[in-house]
Design a protein that fits this description.
- The chain is of the alpha/beta class and 314 residues long.
- It has 2 domains: 141 residues, Rossmann fold, CATH 3.40.50; 138 residues, LD-carboxypeptidase A C-terminal domain-like (Glucose Oxidase, domain 1, 3-Layer(bba) Sandwich), CATH 3.50.30.
- The protein is built from 9 helices and 13 strands.
- The strands form 2 sheets. A 7-stranded mixed barrel has the order 6-10-9-8-7-12-13. Strands 2-1-3-4-5-11 form a 6-stranded mixed β-sheet.
- Helix 8 runs parallel beside helix 9.
Length: 314
């Protein structure tokens, strides 16, 4: 990470958003146009990197196309933020080629979640720049009045002041305690895939937030084992868990519950752990800044609160 921390500018509507697809293409023919319309309804002017996102298998075009589009938006001075079309898969394939220093010269927020986690954590590792695990064009922006879009516009506005991450709802205590640290994380699978690479941020003293979709308890158990065996869990100041959705217990097979898995891996770490953050692969969620300092207060009465201590923008 560079010695001088660069913050992206705040976003006051109307602003211009560069649209990129570094991972997968839209799932259908209607979600992207609907998302672009939703952005415009919210007062955001869209700047397209490509006229169409033709699928190349599970990718939104070749590695060269996706990397070139991302770099082009990074250097454009007339683009205020970069918003990803969707997640899926593909960011890891271009990660070694991304020139994150381009954003130090032209700072702007990188917005997305799921597969975009890889780009966002690497961005923080190499530049110290925050990003937003937030609404994507073909997923959330078709409903611009939804919680995710509204919360994103709120926490990135010039007038926003640091406070509770989700002022409308509190989280639940799994392990009580208090901690302060940089808020890092995103999708569990992508976090673990960065272990051992030059793109993994230093997690010492961080508050790690996680979500996952479509992974059964034994698969989540294995992913957390990788975090544990790598030593990362022992370095953390706190843990906040969002949604672990889309995976039922294996039919007819013995299984631990997801909570059993969490208690096994987190119960004896000696750090505060909270569950129930409104964040993950479901519609009604908050946008979570990556790379800003936060406080986790997991009280013994069962109520937990994540408080942002600084803004993700200047």
């Amino acid at each position: 990470m560079s010695d001088i921390r660069t913050l992206p500018p705040a976003l006051a509507t109307p602003f211009r958003a560069g649209i990129v697809a570094p991972s997968s293409a839209p799932r259908d023919d209607v979600s992207l146009p609907a998302g672009l319309k939703g952005l415009e309804q919210a007062g955001i002017e869209v700047v397209l990197g490509r006229e169409a996102y033709d699928a190349l298998g599970y990718l939104a075009g070749t590695d060269e196309q996706r990397l070139g589009e991302l770099h082009a938006m990074m250097v454009r001075p007339d683009v205020d933020a970069i918003i990803c079309v969707r997640g899926g898969y593909g960011a890891l394939r271009i990660l070694d080629q991304v020139d994150f220093s381009l954003l130090e010269t032209n700072p702007k927020l990188l917005v997305g979640y799921s597969d975009i986690t890889a780009l966002q954590l690497a961005l923080y590792k190499h530049t110290g720049m925050p990003s937003i695990s937030g609404p994507m064009v073909a997923v959330e922006w078709p409903e611009p009045e939804g919680i995710n879009c509204r919360h994103f516009l709120d926490i990135t506005s010039p007038d926003w002041k640091p406070g509770p991450l989700d002022p409308e709802k509190h989280q639940q205590t799994l392990v009580s305690g208090q901690a302060e640290g940089v808020l890092l994380g995103g999708n569990l699978s992508l976090v673990t895939k960065l272990i051992g690479t030059r793109h993994m941020p230093d997690m010492k003293g961080a508050i790690l937030f996680l979500e996952e979709v479509g992974e059964s308890p034994y698969r989540v158990d294995g992913l957390l084992a990788q975090l544990g065996l790598s030593g990362i869990l022992d370095e953390l100041a706190g843990i906040v868990l969002g949604g672990f959705t889309g995976a039922d217990l294996p039919a007819g097979k013995p299984s631990l519950s997801m909570r059993d898995v969490f208690e096994d891996w987190f119960g004896d770490l000696g750090i505060p752990v909270a569950t129930g953050l409104r964040y993950g692969h479901f519609p009604d969620k908050v946008a979570v800044p990556i790379g800003v300092r936060a406080r986790l207060d997991a009280r013994s009465d069962g109520r937990a609160v994540v408080t942002l201590l600084e803004k993700p923008t200047r």
